[in-house]
Amino acid sequence: MNNIKLGLIPSPDLPADITSQFIDELPEFLRRTVNDTIEWKTQIVIDPLVGTAEHIKQVIDKSIQLKEKNDWDYVICLTDLPYFSDKHVVVADLNVEHNVAFVSIPAFGTFPMKRRIKNIIADILNDLEKSNINNIIEQDYVNTVSTSIKRKATYSELEHANNESNEDDKDNFTQEDTEDKSHVKYVINSKWLGHMRILAGMTFANRPWSALISFKKIIMLAFGTGVYITLFPTPWELSTIYSLPRFVILMIFAILGMVTWLIFAHQLWEKPTHRGDVRLRKLYNYTTVSTLLTISIFNYIVLYSLFLLAISIFVPAELFEAVTDLEDDASLVYYFQLTWLITSLGTLAGSIGATSEDENKIRQITYSYRQINRSYEIENEKADDEQESGYEYG
């Protein structure tokens, strides 16, 4: 039985976590789906460059170096970096000449992530084993991943189409014209679906559900403010006369207010620069908004649950009727409405307290700042290597 060494190079954070979850079961999976006459040996090397470089050629070059260093037969990079080609979202890019592939995890969207990545790894290896590149270009990609994905032509066939695009825009894109003629891509057919999926995938990679702990000060301030508000009769009375649209509008206003305040208080909006891909910058900003929006909705749900529990325990029906002068009995609907109003008002107050949160923690959950941190890691590694080799700046 032949032995083949497969190197997996995930970027830090989500790609590394997901890869570590299936690395032990991957050899058996590949025997079933790729070639049952091969004994697969897998190895992981986490590298920050895979999740930082906007030029895919940099990632491919680094992968080839690691491939030669570790004596691997195939290399697959897994990153949370979005990848575009000719305005299409790229799921995977195969360098057939060097047996190296690049997988963009955000292109898969959200769940089920682990199964989708395993399937596309198997499909990549099946394609890389084909001797004739013409057998794998321009075919519908109907396999284990998604029927919305298809194989794209090699770069030589795309070059003419890319050259016809707007030259001013191309100057601002770092992911164009970076591949050689031996590349094959898996792209999402629908541009709209591709952009929606990659936005969802990047938001998922930020793990907004895990940021609730980082926002504990905001929740505490919002809850404290809401409790204080309930000491006055006006919110009680307003909750009995407000219509449903008013409650909804106030809730939306409170959530959007928190998102807006967080962005500007901590300067999370990435501004245009002379360097960098304008398309990626916009996508990072959209991801920041969607991530903070998800976190704010989670916070709102937590606050609503806390207020509902507190009000249901400490506010008897008689007190509710006395404060609001209700002519009928205080039903559960009134309790839900009061909780809804208090939660919205508390959320508005909590958003002002966003400036008290740890700025580094707030920034770390956004996409662009995670890329910056990885760039710092790479620079530090380069500096350490230069010191070890005796190189000095002069």
| Major sheet size, sense and barrel closure | 8 strands, mixed
Strand content: 5-15%
CATH architecture of the largest domain: 3-Layer(aba) Sandwich
Number of strands: 8
Describe the structure.
The chain is of the alpha/beta class and 394 residues long. The chain has two domains: 2-190, Collagenase (Catalytic Domain), CATH 3.40.390; 206-380, no CATH class. 55% of the residues lie in helices and 12% in strands. Strands 1, 2, 3, 4, 5, 6, 7 and 8 form an eight-stranded mixed β-sheet that branches. Helix 11 (278-314) packs across helix 13 (332-352). The radius of gyration is 26 Å and the shape is elongated. Mean pLDDT is 79; it is low at 137-147 and 153-170.
In short:
The protein has 394 residues and is of the alpha/beta class.
Strand-helix topology:
Blueprint: E1 2-10, H1 14-22, H2 26-33, E2 38-44, H3 56-70, E3 74-79, E4 84-85, E5 88-95, E6 100-104, H4 113-128, E7 149-152, H5 155-163, H6 167-170, E8 183-188, H7 191-205, H8 216-229, H9 233-241, H10 244-265, H11 278-314, H12 317-324, H13 332-352, H14 359-364, H15 367-388
Parallel strand pairs: 1-2, 1-3, 3-6
Antiparallel strand pairs: 4-5, 5-6, 5-8, 7-8
Helix pairs in contact: 7-11, 8-11, 8-13, 9-13, 10-11, 10-13, 11-13
